[in-house]
Q: What sequence folds into this?
């Protein structure tokens, strides 16, 4: 049994997982319309590679990666591209993005999927393939996996951690995936181990998922690759990447640095699964498993096409009529959306229908009584009450002194605060403003440098010019008479006025 | 040790400690000027009435100028200065100008005559070009100071809003 | 909009209510040893506190119900009433409570903004303004020469309404700490005056039992995770340590640690007074420093100062130091801690 190192803080909210794990994963039926945002990943949006009117097949690339920090987008089923336009997309700050809108034809005709000959290809070729298959991190941050694996941090990876902890309440998609398709997940992990060249592989699962643990233990034993399954005591946020790494290896990755710099890579179990499909089956990312839960009659997990509307998924789960809102993600780190008429994207692991009974409306915040519950709960060893004090006073430098940039925005402090203060919202705002300020400061510094260099250059010219003038007293005559000069000046002036007039008339 | 000697040595020790502590508070005028300059937006536009950001910083450091004369810095800049100098904020002196949204200069290449007057005016060398060659503004480096607009004889420079993703 | 949709069970009202629950065993012991007068004082203080808070909130144009219902004023009133002499006249209780709520709490900004512990501020103000009534302590019932009936206790609390023929006959007897100070000052040895009826097995008769019930109440608070171990343990440890040190140096002048732990307001202070979250330090190391400082100052005032017990002044002084303590004891952040050993990873 591997020793666990623990981390400071953490909370134990009611898990609400059993509601959605009594039924197996169901394949959601093909919707009639798919709205595929071109940006379903961190980094640059994909570039459309189809046009309106094109007929597309299942698995066909409809968006190509724009750069290394990008991933491809594929058609989840066959149909016709009817539009490429802006549509509301699920995100923390409500906005719309360019999407490829496909009207499906119900035939589900696919391109030929051929397994990728992993053993014969170089690492770079495998990573290109993963990018072309649209593989991104499915833990929520949707970081393009190829970019994550290709970044060189100057350190060999000694430990590969597979995050199956799924610590946030309500979400159960990873646990169901590991329960029902453990062999595929383990095979994906094997590919990852190869790509990372990791010595140790640890698959971490919380102890409130006994079926997933059992299934994965069997699969790992059968695979025989020496992967370790570690049972974690259920606690939020033990699934936070840095907290998980501390738990398993006692390595604390500070804010601003990345785990690979310390020799550890961490991938979500769902990502391992999509890597398996991309390499062993040659299938791009076209669907994802999403937990539909909360104020619905049959909460459960669906494997649904990307681009399917949340509303259709909620209808499948039979949403109750007294639903008053929806949360995408979990109740601690998720975000509310205005309307469920938004497409399923790679980042959406869960959608919760809320009601007044299940999620009582937020009470007005009282002043902070400095009780210190937030300090006890913070997994990043921060002092949330002090950061709040300074962030509220818009004193961002003091908030930064208290390391607000290291806040992982897990919401544990919100959960424990007796005064009901939405602490992490203040921290998120402060972090964004600090980042903007840092950019502005960097620009101002660069401008100042350019200005000072220019001043130096001009001073140098002036001293050189004075020196040369001192030795040059004879000025060559132009040979032009005064009248000619005057005529020339007049002509120049006339040309300038004509140019000005042309410009103002055309502007 | 007699009581007198005890108290005398306590007094001396206290004096030494107080002097040490206070020495950290002594204002070095040059350092202060640098610190102030570091908070200014480096637009070098001269709207404050001084010949650039550093002269303005020097004026603030020596107490000759108020902290509310910089329109590109805006209210946020005044707040930064008030925190740095530990004095009260005042609202921007709008006689110096108003805070505008960040914009960059764009040269209309159809009408540019290649006179280099704008290049000579730009305080941060953000305009690329040479005599009788096409001039263009390097958008990434333009601070929006608008000093290039008056010299242009054909009025072919416009201020346009910042394009997305430029910074 | 990113939001936390679920919330834990704790609310400010619940926190205050549980702390008051922790005081109940102490109150019961108090009534047993000193009669029911304390309940009247508690009532007077409570009513004054709630009325004062309501009026102040209206004046300050703040929402009244959310703030009054959080019961923080009520808790302040209880702590104050329990710190003051049992038969304090109603005007003394009222004045102290008004000072605590109006000046120590609301003038500074109300809940969450007061730098000083309001109950201790009220106590200190009353002690300085009315030294005589604040020194009028009663003996516990078991050693009083005549047992004071409840009606007479009421007459003490409301002297204006007392029967004209009523003669104040309740004894005033020095508290154990006071006796210690007085007898030591006249150069008597402890072993020579420890026979006095005021002294019980550990500290003072009656008051030592009340202190034990406060200790039990404090353990309840700790079990409920309302307080961490830092504050009470540091306070009691430093108090005991200093008492032991001085006791070793001169046992004829300085009482043993148990006396100091169970005498005076030590237990009430350790678990209920210094744990007021708004005015105490909030970082773990800061809490230890804060509590240690409070205990050390309390002991110094007890031994060398002019007052028999120094908890109130000690706590108020340390309250002033809290911003500095907090600033210098910020715990290291995740990932930026100094390495404990050369190999931090378990491989």
A:
């Amino acid at each position: 049994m591997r020793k666990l190192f623990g981390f400071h803080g953490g909370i134990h909210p009611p898990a609400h997982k059993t509601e959605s794990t009594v039924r197996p994963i169901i394949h959601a039926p093909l919707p009639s319309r798919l709205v595929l945002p071109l940006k379903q990943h961190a980094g640059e949006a994909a570039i459309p590679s189809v046009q309106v009117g094109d007929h597309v097949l299942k698995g066909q690339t409809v968006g190509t990666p724009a750069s290394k920090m990008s991933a491809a987008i594929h058609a989840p089923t066959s149909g016709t591209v009817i539009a490429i336009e802006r549509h509301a997309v699920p995100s923390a700050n409500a906005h719309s993005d360019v999407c490829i809108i496909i009207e499906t034809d119900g035939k589900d005709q696919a391109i030929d999927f051929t397994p990728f000959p992993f053993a014969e290809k170089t690492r770079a070729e495998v990573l290109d393939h993963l990018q072309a298959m649209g593989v991104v991190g499915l833990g929520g941050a949707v970081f393009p996996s190829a970019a994550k694996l290709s970044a060189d941090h100057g350190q060999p990876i000694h430990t590969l951690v597979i995050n199956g902890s799924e610590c946030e309440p309500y979400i159960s998609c990873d646990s169901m995936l590991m329960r029902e398709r453990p062999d595929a997940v383990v095979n994906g992990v094997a590919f990852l181990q190869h790509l990372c060249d990791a010595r140790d592989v640890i698959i971490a699962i919380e102890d409130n998922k006994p079926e997933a643990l059992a299934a994965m233990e069997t699969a790992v034993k059968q695979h025989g690759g020496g992967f370790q399954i570690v049972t974690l005591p259920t606690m939020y946020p033990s699934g936070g990447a840095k907290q998980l790494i501390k738990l398993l290896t006692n390595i604390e990755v500070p804010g601003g640095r990345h785990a690979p710099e310390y020799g550890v890579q961490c991938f979500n179990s769902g990502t391992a699964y999509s890597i398996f499909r991309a390499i062993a089956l040659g299938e791009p990312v076209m669907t994802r498993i999403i937990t539909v839960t909360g104020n619905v009659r049959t909460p459960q997990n669906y494997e649904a096409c990307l681009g399917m509307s949340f509303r259709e998924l909620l209808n499948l789960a039979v949403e109750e009529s007294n639903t008053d809102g929806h949360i995408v993600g979990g109740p601690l780190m998720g975000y509310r959306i205005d309307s469920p008429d938004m497409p399923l994207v790679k980042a959406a692991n869960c959608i919760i229908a809320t009601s007044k009974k299940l999620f009582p409306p937020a009470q007005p915040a009282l002043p902070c009584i400095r009780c210190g519950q937030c300090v006890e709960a913070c997994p990043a060893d921060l002092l949330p009450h002090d950061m709040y004090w300074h962030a509220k006073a818009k004193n961002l430098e003091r908030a930064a002194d208290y390391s607000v940039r290291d806040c992982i925005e897990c919401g544990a402090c919100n959960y424990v605060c007796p005064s009901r203060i939405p602490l992490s919202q203040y921290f998120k705002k402060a972090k964004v403003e600090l980042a903007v300020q840092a950019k502005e400061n960097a620009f101002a510094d660069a401008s100042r440098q350019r200005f000072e260099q220019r001043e130096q250059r001009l001073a140098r010219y002036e001293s050189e010019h004075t020196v040369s003038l001192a030795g040059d007293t004879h000025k060559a005559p132009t040979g032009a008479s005064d009248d000619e000069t005057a005529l020339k000046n007049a002509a120049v002036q006339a040309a300038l006025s004509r140019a000005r007039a042309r410009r103002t008339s055309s502007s | 040790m007699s009581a007198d000697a005890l108290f005398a040595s306590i007094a001396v020790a206290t004096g030494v400690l107080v002097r040490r502590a206070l020495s950290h508070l002594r204002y070095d005028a040059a350092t202060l000027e640098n610190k102030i300059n570091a908070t200014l937006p480096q637009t070098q536009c001269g709207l404050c009435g001084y010949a650039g950001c550093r002269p303005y910083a020097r004026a603030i450091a020596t107490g000759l100028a108020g902290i509310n004369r910089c329109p590109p810095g805006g209210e946020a800049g005044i707040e930064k200065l008030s925190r740095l100098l530990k004095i009260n904020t005042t609202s921007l002196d709008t006689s110096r100008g108003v805070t505008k949204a960040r914009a960059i200069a764009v040269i209309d290449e159809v009408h540019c005559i290649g006179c280099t007057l704008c290049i000579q005016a730009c305080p941060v060398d953000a305009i690329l070009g040479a005599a009788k060659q096409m001039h263009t503004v390097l958008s990434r480096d333009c601070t929006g100071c608008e000093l290039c607009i008056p010299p242009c004889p054909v009025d072919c420079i416009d201020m346009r809003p910042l394009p997305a993703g430029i910074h | 909009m990113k939001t936390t949709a679920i919330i834990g069970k704790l609310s400010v009202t619940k926190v205050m209510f549980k702390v008051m629950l922790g005081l109940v065993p102490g109150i019961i012991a108090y009534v047993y040893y000193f009669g029911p007068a304390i309940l009247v004082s508690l009532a007077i203080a409570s009513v004054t506190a709630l009325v004062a808070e309501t009026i102040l909130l209206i004046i300050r144009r703040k929402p009244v119900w959310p703030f009054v219902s959080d019961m923080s004023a009520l808790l302040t009133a209880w702590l104050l009433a329990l710190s003051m002499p049992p038969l304090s006249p109603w005007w003394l209780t009222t004045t102290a409570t008004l000072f605590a709520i109006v000046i120590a709490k609301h003038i500074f900004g109300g809940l969450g903004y007061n730098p000083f512990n309001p109950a201790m501020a009220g106590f200190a103000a009353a002690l300085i303004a009315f030294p005589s009534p604040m020194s009028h302590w009663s003996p516990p019932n078991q050693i009083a020469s005549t047992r004071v009936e409840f009606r007479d206790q009421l007459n003490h609390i409301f002297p204006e309404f007392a029967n004209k023929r009523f003669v104040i006959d309740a004894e005033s007897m020095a508290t154990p700490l006071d006796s210690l100070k007085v007898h030591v000052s006249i150069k008597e040895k402890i072993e020579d005056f420890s026979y006095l009826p005021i002294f019980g097995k550990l500290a003072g008769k009656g008051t030592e039992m009340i202190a034990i019930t406060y200790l039990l109440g404090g353990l309840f608070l700790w079990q409920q995770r309302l307080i961490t171990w830092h504050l009470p343990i540091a306070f009691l440890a430093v108090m005991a340590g200093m008492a032991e040190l001085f006791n070793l140096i001169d046992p004829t002048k300085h009482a043993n640690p148990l006396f100091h732990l169970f005498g005076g307001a030590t237990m009430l202070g350790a678990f209920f007074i210094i744990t007021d979250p708004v005015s105490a330090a909030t970082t773990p190391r800061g809490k230890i420093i804060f509590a240690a400082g409070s205990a050390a100052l309390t002991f110094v005032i007890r031994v060398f100062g002019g007052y028999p017990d120094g908890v109130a002044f000690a706590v108020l002084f340390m309250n002033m130091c809290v911003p500095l303590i907090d600033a210098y004891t910020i715990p290291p952040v995740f990932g930026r801690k100094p390495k404990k050993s050369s190999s931090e990873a378990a491989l």
About this structure: Chain B has five helices and four strands. The first strand of chain B starts at residue 103 and ends at 107. The helical segments of chain B are 3-23, 29-39, 53-61, 74-85, 117-121.
